[in-house]
Design a protein that fits this description.
With 327 residues, the chain is of the alpha/beta class. It has three domains: 178 residues, Tetracycline Repressor, domain 2, CATH 1.10.357.10; 65 residues, 2,3-Dihydroxybiphenyl 1,2-Dioxygenase, domain 1 (Roll), CATH 3.10.180; 62 residues, 2,3-Dihydroxybiphenyl 1,2-Dioxygenase, domain 1, CATH 3.10.180.10. 50% of the residues lie in helices and 14% in strands. It is built from 15 helices and seven strands. A four-stranded mixed β-sheet has the order 1-4-3-2, covered by helices on one side. A three-stranded mixed β-sheet has the order 5-7-6. The two termini are 50 Å apart.
Length: 327
């Protein structure tokens, strides 16, 4: 690009995307750009050395808008894993919301390899996409060498652009949600969180709630979820109860019934207990066991849980989510 650069308003007029999107790069001439902008070819030539300079400016503006948004998200997330996933999801969302930008940057017609290499040589694209190297690096810490970190970043960039291209160009297919595709294709989707030293004994958690029919809950929690009856009692000061869990486990359920007293069903469909099962085979086995015992998945009240999970409702209307992810 030449040294003379006009006003930003003039540039926006000269750099309209319509010509490149509708006619293709090879069919666009400096004369057509001038006609589109309502000026003379000489005016265009005073601002740009060639039409690739015009397209390069358009690309730069798209990248600036996109990565300014991504950097703002990255600054707002303190947890490295959350930052990685937030930036990755936002990248795909931007492309899906601005498909004309995606076509302009990644699928322009009539462009040569030399033209693209000239833009990449400016260093701007590489500097922008460095964000996708830094984010995985922050998750993995010093456990991976620099070359390996860069490879993971490149895998992430390829995966995100592949997701965008599939969702945009093969829209007739019933794809999984963009969020699910991003999570499953991230280069560190299930990397263990750093271990933390615990300076106190881990307490045992009891999840206790009343019910009008203890017997109706047993097929769900005992047979479906595979929990064991750890103990039970009858008419203890007017209460009956049962405890279910795994022997020696860190948690268990207690269901109680006060004789002569009705408690009713769950107040909402969003009262949940969530089991995180990151291994695919373990998750599939848990879902199959629920179905084999007569419990079919229901649509989650919050659609987030349908992305990687299966939701089941017990006889009282309380729900359990089997989530195919690591916590």
């Amino acid at each position: 690009m030449s040294g003379h650069v006009g006003s930003s308003t003039g540039h926006r007029a000269l750099c309209r995307q319509r010509l490149f999107q509708q006619e293709g790069y090879s069919a666009v001439s400096m004369r057509k750009v001038a006609a589109e902008a309502g000026c003379t070819p000489k005016t265009v030539s005073a601002c740009f050395d060639s039409k690739i300079d015009i397209l390069g400016l358009l690309w730069s503006e798209v990248f600036a808008t996109l990565f300014d948004r991504l950097h703002a998200l990255a600054m707002a997330e303190t947890d490295p894993r959350d930052r990685l996933h937030a930036v990755s999801r936002a990248y795909v969302a931007f492309c899906l919301e601005n498909r004309e930008h995606y076509f302009l940057v990644f699928m322009p017609r009539g462009l040569s390899r030399t033209d693209v290499e000239g833009f990449v040589a400016t260093g701007m694209p590489r500097a922008r996409f460095e964000l996708f190297v830094r984010c995985p690096a922050a998750v993995l810490g010093e456990a991976v060498d620099l070359e390996r970190l860069r490879q993971r970043g490149e895998v992430l960039i390829c995966a995100l652009n592949g997701i965008c291209q599939a969702l945009i160009t093969i829209s007739g297919h019933d794809w999984a949600s963009p969020e699910a595709l991003v999570i499953l294709n991230a280069p560190v989707p299930c990397a263990p969180r750093p271990s933390r030293t615990v300076h106190m004994s881990m307490p045992v958690l009891r999840i206790a709630r009343p019910t009008d029919n203890i017997g109706a809950l047993l097929p769900f929690y005992r047979d479906g979820l595979g929990l064991e009856v750890l103990g039970h009692f009858e008419d203890h000061v007017g209460f009956d109860g049962v405890m279910l869990g795994k022997p020696g486990g860190p948690y268990h359920f207690e269901f109680t019934h006060q004789r002569g007293h009705a408690v009713g069903r769950a107040p909402t469909q969003d009262h949940l207990v969530v089991f995180y099962l990151p291994e695919q085979s373990e998750w599939e086995a848990a879902v199959s066991r629920m179905r084999e015992t007569g419990h079919e998945p229901v649509a989650a009240y919050n659609p987030y849980w349908d992305t990687l999970g299966a939701t089941f409702e017990d006889a009282d209307g309380y729900r359990v989510v089997l989530q195919r992810a690591r916590w």
